[in-house]
Amino acid sequence: MPMLTIKPSGKTVEAEAGMSLLAAILAAGESIAHKCESKAECGSCHIYVTEGRKTLSKIQRLENEKLDSIVGVSSNSRLACQALLGTENVTVELLSFV
Ligand code: FES
Question: What residue ranges line ligand 1, CB within 6 angstroms?
């Protein structure tokens, strides 16, 4: 089972492969915006993945298009609702400017 570490709180929780980062972050009791309910439309669930990017599901067209339209996107950016956990540990950073 992958472990998910959430910054800035530093909380680490066990998650399940195939679960979205958004679901895992919410299950950990952290708050994260998700205004469009996982449709890759709002961009409010934008986060940085600082470790374990390669274990996540690949970025699909809808996520890519949305990320292109968001301010503050970096090479670590993902939409938490679109990125699915793999088998390895992941560290994410929640952003406060969305
Ligand atoms: S919840 Fe809207 S893009 Fe992820």
Answer: 34-36, 38-45, 66, 79, 81
